[in-house]
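A quick word before the example. In earlier lectures we treated sequence and structure as two separate objects. From today on, think of them as two lines of the same record. Here is NAD(P)/FAD-dependent oxidoreductase written that way.
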Amino acid sequence: MTYHKNDSVTNVPEFDAVVVGAGFAGLYAVHKLRNELGLHVRGYEKGTGVGGTWYWNRYPGALSDTRSFVYRYSFDKALLQDWTWKNTYLTQPEILEYLEHVADRFDIRQSFQFSTKVTAAHFNEETNLWEIVTDRGDKVRAKFIVNGLGLLSATNVPNFKGRETFKGEQYHTGAWPAGVDLNGKRVGVIGTGSTGVQTITAIAPEVGHLTVFQRSPQYSVPVGLRPQSEEEITEIKKNYDEIWKQVKSSAVAFGFEESNISAVTVSKEEQERVFEAAWNEGGGFYFMFGTFNDIAINPEANEAAANFIRKKIHEIVKDPKTARKLTPTDYYAKRPLCDNGYYQTFNRDNVSLVDVKENLIVEITPKGVRTTDGEYELDVIIYATGFDAVEGNYVKIDLRGRGGVSINEKWADGPTGYLGMTNTDFPNMFMVLGPNGPFTNLTPSIETQVEWISDTVKYMMENNMTTIEPTQEAENEWLALCKSMAEATLFSKIESWIFGANIPGKKNAVRFYVGGLGNYRSFIKEAGYKGFAFDRAAVKKK
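And the structure line, produced from the sequence above:
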């Protein structure tokens, strides 16, 4: 059974569902809705091919910080056995190759229109259809719209004075073009978050001179990138059923058992031993959540972890002045970072560090970057300044729900929503990794949400329902839960993109459910549809 038809009067094509984005979320959404439910689906993707985040983020050193064996889909057992990896972590080209394989294997490309950006989506209350417009002039209607817009995909380019006057090359890590040659050039990198750390480490041996403009020093641990033997990979594949069971019932879903030991209950010597072992093993999320269970919530435990990393920085970095600039003093409570030799990079003669909190960036000049302590002449400026995370791509679309309310109006005081997938006044609109969804390894969260969306669409079809949207009460309760959980952690005590602090003027608000994937999955299973309003009488309890 499908809903679609063509409007005989206006000749506007109608689809059961429109899927926006061709990354991990969009590909799986098309597979579930078209291949499994038999719906008529149209996908739109602004890039020329599939990949989503991994289509755009081609910057040097781009690497997933999730272990290779769990940075993939789990839904198809044959795919898990057929596709393999070489190292403990995947580079951008490897991830893109994997997603291209998935698109071909399940014949997903045929449903997508590439090089096409959705510019508007309005809900028509008379027809109960979404009316969608693209930058190529397409106009279509759909019963459902599924947004796989990406959590970290709306690039944030700081509006520095004089940026347009620079005579050299300028790039953002999140929109990296092909053919960039940095060999022997004077390069400046602005930003030292995850992408900045990776880029800086990768390009330092290649460039003539690298100037790093750092606003906030970062806690980072080794990534632990190393080859995996065929024996190791075979053993993992043999145990995938148990592995995915553990991942989907865990907190951060990174493929390791989270610690159940408090750092403050063990001796200083035991703390050091555990941290040293984790440092040698590698992995940012492992260091924060696999060592002790209270680093993110207990100031004393957090200080123990932070102090360990600070000592490592001073051991690694030879110049004391540079080491001081690189050493954070606040809580270890941003997204956990890991690297492939970041601190060691600052021992190179061709790398220098500028603290732009001490010496503010005044402007971009034709020759380079001027700070309060002088001008740095450059051939290339790289903006590793991150993204307008979570809601950034939504507010760039003219997205309007019931009564013509825009998403910008709805989210004026911070993004709302229920379960990270739905929003009041926006019927039949689903979001994958929308506001206040799980803060985890993203692929199992994506699968969890896409499967819930697909099951919900199927349920509506079987029960002849027209619209679904969350109740205001359910949305308010979910937001309150997310806020209370976030405030119980140290993440809420410092400025971070997790709460919107990296974008000038952006409201500081909760944007994630930090209760863990296992708890999230249990919640949506137990809640059923009691937090939703359908267009018919109360849904009978199953």
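Notice the following. Residues 442-462 form the longest helix (21 residues). We will return to this example when we discuss secondary structure assignment.
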